[in-house]
């Protein structure tokens, strides 16, 4: 795999069992799977991580959104923080073993997150996407501005198809993140291979 990262983020639309089945098949081709299930409890998230591990998904590839308690107890790779999460400084200080990511939508938010010691950022949405209907995409130029200004890796997200990969990487992204583009594809394994191959070719 190239040093360009491929993150896959759960959509919240699958059963835990189906999510684990898909991720069990695709994990050799991705760098991280984010468990982003806002409607589920800490116990539910704990059980999803267990299902993934039972499907041979390495803990070193699992990132839990917001639930620092589950991330710590299960000893996964890291935690992804959102707007209402604990501050990155608090998380980094109290849970030094966790890689900490943050979702941002502006250069100001990105700069602040970098100052707080974040390991990487998710930035978007780059292209139109059904999950952000009515919201104007950030586009490649804004992505380029973010990556030029920051020293930490920026993972681009939002409406990214396999044929977009090259231009997204050329804009400075360290990788891409995909949700429904993989997990709700007709053939998730073939789709993730397509993303992976395009990353290898950049």
Automatic annotation (TrEMBL):
Single GO BP term: thiamine biosynthetic process
Highest taxon listed in the record's lineage: Bacteria
Presence of keyword Membrane: no
Domain (Thiamine phosphate synthase/TenI) ranges: 11-182
GO molecular function: thiamine-phosphate diphosphorylase activity
Pathway(s): Cofactor biosynthesis; thiamine diphosphate biosynthesis
Keywords linked to the UniProt accession: Thiamine biosynthesis
Entry's Gene Ontology cellular component terms: cytoplasm
NCBIfam families: PRK07695.1
Protein name per the record: Thiazole tautomerase TenI
Gene: tenI
